């Protein structure tokens, strides 16, 4: 499922068309046109606080499961800079197993699993902060794609992941 989510993230991020220059200037458009009307089958898109609250409730109901997390960021040149104090999370994705339905129903993608995509860009900026308590809870086990990087860029949003 993570490979499927990676393909979806790449498609979404490539549709955002943010240049390196724009990212460094922190030019954020008013509306994320790449995601405005995009609803991939089997992946729950979180773009509002109300949707975030519903998804968080499902995450807490499944807190005994280890969820896999990953973030994507802008405003940092990873080949030249450290993420400490730099970078902004523009999205996060999670997978908690095929039995956890975040609300989009079963996926018809290459495998029958469900995923979660959290937008934190443009009009959805700040949505990641709704997940702060969950991500900071040391009693909920999480698996990260690249914990040292993700932890730093999330910390830039005031989220101290555990």
Structure write-up:
- It is a single chain.
- The protein is an alpha/beta fold.
- The protein has one domain.
- 30% of the residues lie in helices and 17% in strands.
- It contains five helices and five strands.
- Strands 1-4-3-2-5 form a five-stranded mixed beta sheet.
Mean pLDDT: 80
Beta-strand percentage range: 15-25%
> Rounded to an integer, what's the Rg over CA atoms?
15 Å
The succession of helices and strands, N to C, reads HHEHEEEHEH
Structural class: alpha/beta
The number of helical segments is 5
The number of strands is 5
Query: Which spans of ≥5 residues are poorly predicted at pLDDT below 50?
Result: 107-113
Strand order of the largest sheet: 1-4-3-2-5
Q: Main β-sheet: number of strands, strand sense, barrel status? A: 5 strands, mixed
Q: What is the number of domains? A: 1
Shape: globular
Helix content: 25-40%
N- to C-terminal distance: 23 Å
Topology:
Blueprint: H1 2-16, H2 20-25, E1 43-46, H3 49-61, E2 67-74, E3 88-95, E4 115-119, H4 132-136, E5 142-144, H5 147-155
Parallel strand pairs: 1-4, 2-5
Antiparallel strand pairs: 2-3, 3-4
Short description:
This protein is of the alpha/beta class. Helix content is 30%, strand content 17%.
Features:
five-stranded mixed β-sheet
